[in-house]
Amino acid sequence: MQVKEVMTKHPQYLDAxxxxxxxxxxxxxxxxxxxxxxxxxxxxxxxxxxxxxVRAVAEGxxxxxxxxxxxxxxxxxxxxxxxxxxxxxxxANEEVQRLLVLNNADRKDLVGIVTLGDIxxxxxxxxxxxxxxxxxxxxx
Length: 140
Fold this sequence. Notes:
This protein is of the alpha/beta class. 34% of the residues lie in helices and 22% in strands.
């Protein structure tokens, strides 16, 4: 199975100039906990609900500070033709539960987001289910 078979397609960017409050409101409206931040058509970082809840509060940020000030600048990604096994290993190694999905190494267009939940929803055998559990072990 490949990433393109399970990913959430057509993700939207949030503008990197938005405030923490605006990103939090967008997450609430979209029912998401992860948003890519962009400048034009380029991903400049990613922000999670955990970044807002933990990093912003711990650093004494105001809700009106730029979201980019608490975002993770290194956006981790995979390609849509990668195997699910490779993606799960990558997630486990990086201790993340979401990856941006790019179309290919040449163009690098954002085409989706893949999460542990997306993969779990498509588990059709015990071996894959065990790999999902293993990738999620670092979450307590």
